[in-house]
């Protein structure tokens, strides 16, 4: 995929043309990985290039807030993002996403309704963004692109289902499941202790003890 700085609506600060090429190459490879037939759709790829933007979120910056409609989906080029929701008056972690992941406030994006979650950058994060309306136009004009959407939906649905199997696991077993996961294992050590403890449904002290115990044995 080739996209010059001049073809962007606005040149992102601190990004060279080479940086931008690398970002779109990563997006291209991800789409091919999930749905190989898209490799031959040159017109589709050009439309995607013309319809997307590069966005930068600083560490701790809120990407989507409660009651805000999620207008864009984001492909994470670099960084780490946390989803938070309120349960019984307490903020709890729903998920983490990092490089090569698609980031959205799920119900808000697909239904274009106010979000019931908050998305926060845990690190400086760079994304390629695509607006909801543009995405719908691409689906209509290029039916083959629905294959990418379907495969991504299957992938993230399986991740969500996997977490439902944690009900019978101990806190230590849940943490070990994350460490050994090809998905979470690649970035779990970058997640702040409090956020990770919230995701696992335990307190920070318990997680700290579990980590110490596991590190001694590994």
Describe the protein in words.
The protein has 2 domains: 5-168, Jelly Rolls, CATH 2.60.120; 169-218, no CATH class. Helices cover 44% and strands 22% of the residues. It contains 8 helices and 8 strands; from the N terminus they run ααββββββαββααααα. The chain has helices at residues 17-34, 42-51, 106-111, 132-141, 145-164, 171-180, 193-200, 204-217; strands at 52-57, 62-64, 72-78, 80-87, 90-98, 102-103, 117-121, 125-131. A 4-stranded antiparallel beta sheet has the order 1-8-3-6. β4 and β5 (90-98) form a beta hairpin. Residues 1-12 have low confidence and may be disordered. InterPro entries: cNMP-bd_dom, cNMP-bd_dom_sf, RmlC-like_jellyroll.
What tags apply to this protein structure?
2 domains, 8 helices, alpha+beta, 4-stranded antiparallel sheet, 218 residues, Jelly Rolls, globular
